[in-house]
C-alpha cells in the first residue's frame, strides 16, 4: 500500500462512517468500492488501520475479522430479539484521532446531570464522564501512575500504543483467549477495535495500587470498540478497574469490547467493571481469561445501565489448580435487559471455580443469568460452585436463569443453586416501624441483598455503587 | 413414507380420520430435529436416524397373554384393571370391576373410546402441545396410535387400587405408539401405572409415546411410567400434565432402556392451589443417552410445583436435563422448585444440566439446583472394606440415591416393583 495524493474516501462516505477526512491527511493508492454505501465496509477498516499506522498483520487481522462479522448471524436463536434492532449501517465505527467531541455541558440530559450530582462527582469529572471534554489533568495523573508502575517494569498503555511499541508481547496473546470468530460481536470488535488498555506485569511483580482506565483513554475517548489485553507473567499480581459508577452519556448505541486476560503460572488478575451506560446503549462485550497453573482470575462485574447488556465473563482454567471466580451484580430497571452471567471452562486437573450472581429487577426491568460450566473428559478433581439469586421488586419485573453444566467423569463436584424471591414484607414492615419510608426500606433491603458482593469492590466504588442503587430504587415502590 | 400408512385400513369415525390425517401432515412436514435447534443442542441428534424402522406401527406378531404377563415386573401388584398392548394391538384385557364401571369409570383402549366416548377424546386428547422439541414425534403418535387408552374417572370417585397399562414392542424394527389419556373429574382419585418394554433385549425398536394427564378441580392423580426398552430402541415420550384448582398430580418416570431416550414433560398449573410433583429416575449404562426436558408453567396464583430428577450414570452413558420454571405475570405466590442430581459412577459418563427459570411475577419463591458428583470416597471405601465388590457397591449406592424419590410413592407394592426393575438393570 503506497500513500498517494488521491483523496481516499469520498466525502459522502466519510461522513456516513463518521470519519473526519481532514484528520487523516493521507490516502491510499488502491481502489475503493465506492458503492459500498453506509455502514461498515472494508474501507472503514482500512482507514482505521491506516490512521493508527498499524503493521500489515493487524490490518489482515481486521479484514479477516470483518469477513467473519459479516458472515456470522446474530445469536437470536437463543438471545433476545432486541438485537435485531441494532442498525449496523447507522453505527459510527470510528472517530478519528484528534477530533474532539463537539458537545457542551448543556446537551447532557437532565437526569444524567442529577445523577452525577447525587453521586457527588466533582464538576471536572462530570464533564469528562459525560464526554464533554477531555480530562487533561488526569492525563498528568495517569503519567504519574505510569511512572510508578514503570519502575517495576510494568507496561501500561493503550492498545494502539502497545501494538506499536510492544508487538512481540501483544501479538503472542492477542486474539488467543477470544478468537475473532467467538461470536458476531467479538468479530466486530476485532475488525474495528480502537482504544482499550494493554498491561504487562513482569514475573513476580505485585502491582500495589489498582490500575484504572477511565481517566486514561482520553486519546480515544470514543473507543466504543475497545480492546484490552492484560498479561500477568509468572507469580505476578494486578488489579484493574474499568468504567465508573457514573452514567456514561453516550450518543453511540453500540459498545462492543473484547477483553482478554492471561494469567501465567501462579499469577493473579482481578478485573473490576462497573457499567452504567445510558439507556440507549447495546452493551455487547466478550470477556475471557486464561489461567495457567496455580493462577487465579477473578472478574467482578457490575451492570447497572444500558438498554441491553450481554456479557458473560469467563475463565479458561488451563493449568493445574487454576482458579476462576466471577462475581456479578446486575440491576435492570425499566426498559433494560441485563443478560449477564459467567463461563467456567475447566481444562486441567484440580481446577476450581466459583460463580456468584445477584440480580435485581425493578419496574419492567429484566435480568437474565446465563451460565456455562464445562468439565470435559479425563480430568480429575475439578470443582464448581454456582449461586444465583434474583430479587424482584415490582409485580411486572422479570428474571430468567439459564445455566448449562456439563460434567464428564466421576472425579468432580459441581453444584448450582438459584433462587428467585422478593423482598420480604416483614423486613419492609420492620423498617417502616422504625420510621423509614417504604422506598427507603426497599432501597436498604436491596443494598443488603448485594452487600456481601459490593464489599468486594474497592471502597470508593462500593460507596458509589450503593448510592447508585439507592438512586435506581427511587420511585420504584409505592 | 409419504402417505398415511393406515389410511386404507382405518375403520374409525370421520372426525378421527381427519385428526389423524392432519397429524400425519404435521409429521410429514416437520423436519427431524437438528443441532441448531436450541432445544436439541445438547442432544445426540445424529443418533436419530429413522431409516430401517418400520414406522407404520403394523409390524410383528401378536403374543399370547402368558408371554406378555411374564414381561412385566408388576405381576405381584394388585390392579383394579389392566390393558396390555403388543405391537400396538390389544393383547390382554382385565376389565374394571363391576362397581367402578357402574359408577361411570371408563378404562378402555383408545379405539373403543373413539367409538363410544368421542366427547372425552375431542375435549382432551392432544389439546396441549408439550412444545419442548418433539413435535414431529407427537404428531406421528397421533397419526398412528392404535395402542392408546382412556382412563376417565367421574366426579368424586376414588379408585383405591392402581390401574395398569402395558406396551410391548416385539420383533425387529417395529414401532409402537402408546397414547394415554387420563381425565379425572372434580375430586376424583386414581393411580395409573404404565409399563413400556421390548420383548427382546437388543431388538431395534422405535417408540413414540404421548400422555395427556388432566386433573380437574380437587382431583388427585398418581402416574407412574417405567420403561425398559431394548438397548437399541429410539424412544420419544411426551407428558402433558394439566392441574386445575387444588388438583395434585404426581408423575414419576423411570428410565432404564433405550439407545436414545428423550422424555419431555410439561406441567401446567391452571388453578389456584394446583400442585405438580414431577419425578424421574434414570439409570444410564453402556452408551445410552437420556435426554429429559421439562417445563413447569405456573398460570394461576398460589400454585406449586416440585421437580426432582435423579440420574445415575455409568460406563459411557450421557444424560441431559433441561428444565424450565415459567411463572406467568399474574401467577403471584408461586412456589416452584426444580432439582437435577447426577450421580457420576464412571470416568467416561457425561451429565448435562440446564435448569432454568423465567419469572414474570414478583411475589414468588422459585429455586432450582443442580449437582453432579461422585459417591463420597469414604462411602465407597466403607462398602469395599465390608467386602462388597465395586459393582454391587454401585448398585447399593444407586438404590440409596433413588430412595428419596421412591419414598414419595404411597403404594408399597409399586415401590417394590420399581426397585426390582432398577436392580434388574444391574443384573444384565
Automatic annotation (TrEMBL), chain A:
GO biological process, one term: iron-sulfur cluster assembly
Pfam families: SUFBD_core (PF01458), SufBD_N (PF19295)
Taxonomic superkingdom: Bacteria
InterPro entries cross-referenced by the UniProt entry: Fe-S_cluster_assembly_SufBD (IPR055346), SUF_FeS_clus_asmbl_SufB (IPR010231), SUF_FeS_clus_asmbl_SufBD_core (IPR000825), SUF_FeS_clus_asmbl_SufBD_sf (IPR037284), SufBD_N (IPR045595)
Domain SUF system FeS cluster assembly SufBD N-terminal positions: 54-212
Record-annotated SUF system FeS cluster assembly SufBD core domain positions: 215-449
SUPFAM superfamilies assigned to the protein according to its UniProt record, in alphabetical order: Stabilizer of iron transporter SufD
Family (UniProt): Belongs to the iron-sulfur cluster assembly SufBD family.
Protein known as: Fe-S cluster assembly protein SufB
Organism: Ereboglobus luteus
From TrEMBL, chain B:
Pfam families xref list: SUFBD_core, SufBD_N
Entries under SUPFAM superfamilies matching the protein: Stabilizer of iron transporter SufD
Location of the SUF system FeS cluster assembly SufBD N-terminal domain: 14-163
Residue stretches making up the SUF system FeS cluster assembly SufBD core domain: 169-401
Membership in a protein family: Belongs to the iron-sulfur cluster assembly SufBD family.
Gene Ontology BP terms: iron-sulfur cluster assembly
Superkingdom, taxonomy of origin: Bacteria
InterPro entries listed in its UniProt record: Fe-S_cluster_assembly_SufBD, SUF_FeS_clus_asmbl_SufBD_core, SUF_FeS_clus_asmbl_SufBD_sf, SUF_FeS_clus_asmbl_SufD, SufBD_N
Gene: sufD
Protein name as catalogued: Fe-S cluster assembly protein SufD
Amino acid at each position: 500500500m503506497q500513500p498517494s495524493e488521491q483523496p481516499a474516501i469520498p466525502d459522502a462516505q466519510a461522513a456516513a462512517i463518521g470519519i473526519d477526512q481532514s484528520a487523516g491527511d493521507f490516502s491510499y493508492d488502491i481502489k475503493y468500492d465506492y458503492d459500498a454505501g453506509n455502514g461498515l465496509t472494508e474501507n472503514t477498516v482500512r482507514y482505521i488501520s491506516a490512521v493508527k499506522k498499524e503493521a500489515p498483520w493487524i490490518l489482515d487481522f481486521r479484514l479477516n475479522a470483518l469477513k467473519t462479522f459479516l458472515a456470522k448471524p446474530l445469536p437470536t436463536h437463543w438471545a433476545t430479539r432486541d438485537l435485531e434492532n441494532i442498525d449496523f449501517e447507522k453505527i459510527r465505527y470510528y472517530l478519528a484521532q484528534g477530533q474532539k467531541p463537539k458537545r457542551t455541558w448543556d446537551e447532557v440530559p437532565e437526569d444524567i446531570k442529577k445523577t452525577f450530582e447525587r453521586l457527588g462527582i466533582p464538576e471536572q469529572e462530570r464533564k469528562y464522564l459525560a464526554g464533554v471534554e477531555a480530562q487533561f489533568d488526569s492525563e498528568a495523573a495517569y503519567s504519574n501512575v505510569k511512572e510508578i508502575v514503570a519502575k517495576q517494569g510494568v507496561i501500561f498503555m493503550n492498545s494502539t500504543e502497545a501494538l506499536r511499541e510492544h508487538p512481540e508481547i501483544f501479538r503472542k496473546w492477542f486474539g488467543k483467549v477470544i478468537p475473532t470468530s467467538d461470536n458476531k460481536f467479538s468479530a466486530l470488535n476485532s475488525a474495528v477495535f480502537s482504544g482499550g488498555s494493554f498491561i504487562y506485569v513482569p514475573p513476580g511483580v505485585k502491582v500495589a495500587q489498582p490500575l484504572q482506565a477511565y481517566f486514561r483513554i482520553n486519546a480515544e475517548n470514543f473507543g466504543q470498540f475497545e480492546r484490552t489485553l492484560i498479561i500477568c507473567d509468572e507469580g505476578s499480581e494486578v488489579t484493574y478497574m474499568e468504567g465508573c459508577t457514573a452514567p456514561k452519556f453516550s450518543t453511540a448505541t453500540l459498545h462492543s469490547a473484547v477483553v482478554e486476560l492471561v494469567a501465567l503460572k501462579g499469577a493473579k488478575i482481578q478485573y473490576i467493571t462497573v457499567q452504567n451506560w445510558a439507556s440507549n446503549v447495546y452493551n455487547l462485550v466478550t470477556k475471557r481469561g486464561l489461567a495457567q497453573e496455580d493462577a487465579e482470575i477473578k472478574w467482578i462485574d457490575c451492570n447497572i445501565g444500558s438498554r441491553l447488556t450481554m456479557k458473560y465473563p469467563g475463565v479458561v482454567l488451563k493449568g493445574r489448580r487454576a482458579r476462576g471466580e466471577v462475581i456479578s451484580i446486575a440491576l435492570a430497571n425499566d426498559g433494560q435487559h441485563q443478560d449477564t452471567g459467567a463461563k467456567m471452562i475447566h481444562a486441567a486437573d484440580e481446577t476450581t471455580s466459583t460463580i456468584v450472581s445477584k440480580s435485581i429487577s425493578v419496574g419492567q426491568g429484566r435480568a437474565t443469568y446465563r451460565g456455562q460450566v464445562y468439565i470435559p473428559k479425563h480430568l480429575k478433581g475439578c470443582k464448581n460452585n454456582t449461586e444465583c439469586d434474583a430479587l424482584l421488586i415490582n409485580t411486572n419485573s422479570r428474571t430468567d436463569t439459564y445455566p448449562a453444566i456439563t460434567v464428564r467423569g466421576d472425579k468432580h463436584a459441581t453444584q448450582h443453586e438459584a433462587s428467585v424471591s422478593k423482598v420480604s414484607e416483614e423486613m419492609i414492615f420492620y423498617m417502616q416501624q422504625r420510621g423509614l419510608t417504604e422506598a427507603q426500606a426497599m432501597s436498604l433491603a436491596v443494598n443488603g441483598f448485594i452487600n456481601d458482593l459490593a464489599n468486594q469492590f474497592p471502597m470508593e466504588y462500593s460507596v458509589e455503587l450503593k448510592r447508585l442503587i439507592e438512586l435506581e430504587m427511587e420511585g420504584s415502590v409505592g | 413414507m409419504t402417505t398415511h400408512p393406515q389410511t386404507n385400513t382405518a375403520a374409525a369415525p370421520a372426525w378421527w380420520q381427519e385428526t389423524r390425517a392432519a397429524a400425519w401432515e404435521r409429521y410429514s412436514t416437520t423436519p427431524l430435529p437438528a443441532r441448531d435447534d436450541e432445544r436439541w443442542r445438547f442432544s445426540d441428534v445424529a443418533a436419530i436416524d429413522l431409516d430401517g424402522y418400520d414406522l407404520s406401527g403394523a409390524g410383528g406378531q401378536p403374543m399370547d397373554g402368558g408371554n406378555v404377563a411374564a414381561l412385566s415386573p408388576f405381576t405381584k401388584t394388585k390392579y383394579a384393571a389392566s390393558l396390555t398392548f403388543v405391537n400396538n394391538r390389544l393383547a390382554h384385557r382385565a376389565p374394571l370391576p363391576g362397581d367402578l364401571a357402574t359408577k361411570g369409570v371408563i378404562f378402555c383402549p383408545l379405539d373403543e373410546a373413539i367409538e363410544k366416548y368421542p366427547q372425552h377424546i375431542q375435549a382432551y386428547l392432544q389439546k396441549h402441545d408439550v412444545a419442548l422439541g418433539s413435535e414431529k414425534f407427537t404428531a406421528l403418535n397421533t397419526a398412528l396410535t392404535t395402542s392408546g387408552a382412556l382412563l376417565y374417572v367421574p366426579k368424586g370417585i376414588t379408585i383405591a387400587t392402581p390401574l395398569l397399562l402395558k406396551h410391548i414392542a416385539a420383533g425387529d424394527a417395529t414401532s409402537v405408539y402408546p397414547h394415554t389419556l387420563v381425565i379425572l373429574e372434580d375430586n376424583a382419585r386414581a393411580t395409573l401405572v404404565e409399563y413400556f418394554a421390548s420383548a427382546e433385549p437388543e431388538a431395534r425398536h422405535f417408540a413414540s409415546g404421548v400422555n395427556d394427564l388432566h386433573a380437574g378441580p380437587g382431583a388427585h392423580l398418581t402416574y407412574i411410567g417405567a420403561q425398559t426398552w431394548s438397548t437399541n430402541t429410539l424412544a420419544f415420550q411426551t407428558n402433558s400434565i394439566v392441574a386445575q384448582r387444588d388438583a395434585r398430580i404426581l408423575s414419576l418416570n423411570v428410565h432404564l432402556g433405550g439407545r436414545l431416550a428423550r422424555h419431555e414433560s410439561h406441567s401446567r398449573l391452571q388453578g389456584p392451589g394446583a400442585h405438580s410433583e414431577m419425578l424421574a429416575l434414570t439409570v444410564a449404562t453402556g452408551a445410552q443417552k437420556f435426554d429429559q426436558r421439562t417445563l413447569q408453567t405456573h398460570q394461576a396464583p398460589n400454585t406449586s410445583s416440585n421437580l426432582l430428577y435423579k440420574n445415575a450414570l455409568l460406563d459411557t452413558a450421557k444424560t441431559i436435563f433441561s428444565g424450565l420454571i415459567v411463572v406467568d405475570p399474574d401467577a403471584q405466590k408461586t412456589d416452584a422448585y426444580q432439582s437435577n442430581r447426577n450421580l457420576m459412577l464412571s470416568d467416561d459418563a457425561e451429565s448435562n444440566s440446564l435448569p432454568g427459570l423465567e419469572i414474570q411475577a414478583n411475589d414468588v419463591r422459585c429455586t432450582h439446583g443442580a449437582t453432579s458428583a461422585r459417591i463420597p470416597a469414604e462411602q465407597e471405601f466403607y462398602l469395599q472394606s465390608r467386602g462388597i465388590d465395586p459393582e454391587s457397591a454401585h448398585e447399593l449406592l444407586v438404590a440409596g440415591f433413588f430412595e428419596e424419590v421412591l419414598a414419595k410413592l404411597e403404594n408399597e407394592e409399586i415401590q417394590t416393583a420399581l426397585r426390582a426393575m432398577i436392580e434388574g438393570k444391574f443384573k444384565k
